[in-house]
Structures are given as C-alpha cells and as structure tokens.
C-alpha cells in the first residue's frame, strides 16, 4: 500500500508493531537512513527473498528506497510472501523531510 510521507509517518508513530525497512543498496544505506531502519537490498534477487522470508509476518513493515519505485516492488514481493502489512513511502528518501542517521 502506497502512503504519502505524512500518512506513513503518522501511521508509523502510532504502530507498536512496526519495522522500518530500507531496500536500497548497502552503499546508499550508508549515505544516510531513517532511524532504526533494517537494510535488505532488493537488488540481491533471491537473497532478498530469503531475507524477507525470515522476517516476522505478524509485524507491519514501513518500506522505503531512494524514490519509491524499488520499495513499491518490495511491498508487492512481501505481500506475495505472506506479509500482509507492507507500506510504501511515496517519494522515498529523496522526498523525506524527517531526520536521517548518517553512520
């Protein structure tokens, strides 16, 4: 499900069962990420699927990438793998107005 930044942030803040998932590459992730994000690179293909299959399917996943395209695809894959609640951040981190962590 695609959410605007405003809705994504509001829903995330109210969700005690939330996991933030960054599906960018490790290099992109290391350039800065949303606090507490888990990084699983969608470009890993089958490796991405294996890692997604290990996740708790009862959690709610707030997914983002650079612009929102890869994370939309990630949400679709997650739904197919049995994760019902995957929320895509429209516009990705490019449009993100919140704080980021720079390692």
TrEMBL record:
Domain of life where this protein originates: Bacteria
Membrane spanning stretches: none
Cross-referenced SUPFAM superfamilies: Rhodanese/Cell cycle control phosphatase
Domain Rhodanese residue range list: 14-102
PROSITE patterns per record: RHODANESE_3
Gene3D superfamilies membership: Rhodanese-like domain (3.40.250.10)
Name used for this protein in its record: Rhodanese
């Amino acid at each position: 499900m695609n959410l605007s930044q405003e809705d994504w942030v509001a829903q995330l803040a109210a969700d005690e069962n939330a996991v933030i998932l960054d599906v960018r590459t490790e290099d992109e992730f290391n350039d800065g990420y949303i606090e507490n994000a888990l990084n699983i690179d969608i470009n890993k293909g089958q490796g991405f699927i294996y890692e997604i299959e290990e996740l708790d399917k009862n959690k709610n996943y707030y997914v983002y990438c650079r612009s929102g395209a890869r994370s939309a695809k990630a949400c679709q894959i997650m739904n197919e793998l049995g994760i019902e609640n995957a929320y895509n951040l429209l516009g990705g981190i490019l449009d993100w107005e919140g704080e980021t962590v720079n390692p």
